[in-house]
Amino acid sequence: MNHFDQVFFAVRDREIEKIRKAFKESGLNEVDITKFIDSAKNLVHYSEHCAEMVRQEKLLESEVLIELKRAHPGFSEETYGLAFNLGFSRTR
Predict the structure, then answer these.
(1) Burial class for 78, CB neighbours closer than 10 Å (0-12, 13-18, 19+)
(2) How many domains does the chain have?
(3) Which of 74, 76, 82, 85 is deepest in the core (most CB within 10 A)?
């Protein structure tokens, strides 16, 4: 699991400070930590936007993963799928 994926799970589970502390202890600098956290937050936000676009029939469900990968590179295939599901559940 890469740093992007680790932070996604922390953002999803609302444990940002926990992951920030773990990354600091592992030697990552604050700029990189902030980059990872911002990337994960942006992925979550964009997944919510994509879910709304699907509901409005402006985006096909089959295109969501492709769009998430295009807009927010660096995450694993599994994380994009989880983000896709999270977007739908948070926008019900």
Answers:
(1) exposed
(2) 1
(3) 82
